[in-house]
Amino acid sequence: MASKPETRAHVLIIGAGPVGMMCASKLSHAGIKTTVVESDKFIPPIPKALTYTAPVLADLKKLGVLEEVQKISFADEHAIWQWRTLGGELLADMHWSLLEDHADPRLVKPYTLQCGQHLLAEVLTEYCGRFPSTEVLFDHALVGLTQDASQVTAQVSRSGGEPFEIKADWVIGADGGKSATRKFIDQSLEGFTWNESFVAMNVHFPFPKYGWGAANFLIGGKEWAVAGRSGPLTDPWRVAFGVEVGLTDEQVMKDIAPDRLKRILPGPDPYEIVQCSQYRVHQRQVQQYKVGRVVLAGDAAHLNNPIGGFGLTTGMTDAGCISDALILVIRGEAPEEFLQKACDVRREIFATVSNPGSQKFKAMVQQDPDNICAEDREFFEKLKNDAEFHRSALTGVMRLYTPVEDLMGK
Ligand SMILES: Cc1cc2nc3c(=O)[nH]c(=O)nc-3n(C[C@H](O)[C@H](O)[C@H](O)COP(=O)(O)OP(=O)(O)OC[C@H]3O[C@@H](n4cnc5c(N)ncnc54)[C@H](O)[C@@H]3O)c2cc1C
Fold this sequence. Notes:
The chain is α/β, with parallel strands linked by helices. Helix content is 32%, strand content 27%. α1 runs parallel beside α4. The relative contact order is 0.17. Bound molecules: flavin-adenine dinucleotide. Flavin-adenine dinucleotide (FAD) is lined by residues 14-20, 37-40, 43, 46, 48-50, 117, 141-142, 174-176, 180, 200, 277, 279, 298-299, 306, 309, 311-312, 315. This is FAD/NAD(P)-binding domain-containing protein.
């Protein structure tokens, strides 16, 4: 329930995507006056990220919204992720239920959730609505930003109209890959862009009839694909694959998708595509997450290819850690350097876990299915035959999690 603001501090969050709304939820829950500005009139339901692993669940549980998110998700503690060849041969399974007797109390059931990220952002926006000191302003874009040692002044424009000022003690830029906040603090995303486009489509097709798990990684060279549930049982599935750069969505739908789906789908049943979008993929990160009183989180700070589900899980765990650190600084329980430390640790996690991990997943699915490399063959064999290895492969996702308590005393 809403708690009284304990400080006069005001935090402005740019962007009402899932990362911005997770930050807003944490700050609101801590009783801190929070304003979110979002340039869109609403969060559009386009097919973007949909898988959230254990580290995200831990923060949703702390906020008390885990059950609500479960209701709109595919949520099954016995969920199975599978590795297959494009032809459908099952190479290995990952069983989340193996974590049942795991000692780490931060491993929250059902361990993974699958739902469209716009729905997650909506649940968090509704949650913020319970707090009178929190305001979410849709159709308001950040168009300018300056700061001095004691405050930040943001220029915000409604529906492209005359800008007006919002003053805040701190700003969190969670405004995605094309972040304006990032530009105003002179940071750029360093790294590279892959020379291919990814297609994400929502498709109705009876995958479970063919024994497919909640998430499926299909090894197929240039014809790789990923398919997984996008929500509760009746929802369409998400199918993603790569195409050359420069095609229109119409070309993808008409000239590419029918042939590709024929090879990806495991049977002759009819299918229906309900949504389709294309996007470029990158491996990039800024040098500094914190510049003065402005911090970046999520796609505003880093981008990676989505295979393996590192993108949004990293963004959501940034949001948890950075907001919790900011709350301690605002309450005077930690010095400003503590926020810097949280930002530096999150930057290091992207550099050492999410960035290489997502590239490893991409290389795995993009290899020749008839000539799978020795390292990956060994990985599949160990998943099948070594329960301890299997468990450690599952708990590996916790490397993305930085509970703020872990930073204290470091
Ligand atoms: C088509 C597509 C498919 C994807 N699929 C996957 C996937 O399957 N798995 C995966 O892990 N990742 C995927 N990603 C990446 C994933 O969606 C991102 O990691 C995730 O969206 C990051 O969340 P965020 O809140 O940081 O940014 P966003 O979700 O981009 O939210 C940023 C918000 O800021 C708002 N905004 C932008 N500029 C301003 C401004 N100047 N003022 C105010 N508001 C502003 C935007 O309107 C937006 O609502 C996909 C991305 C795309 C584009």
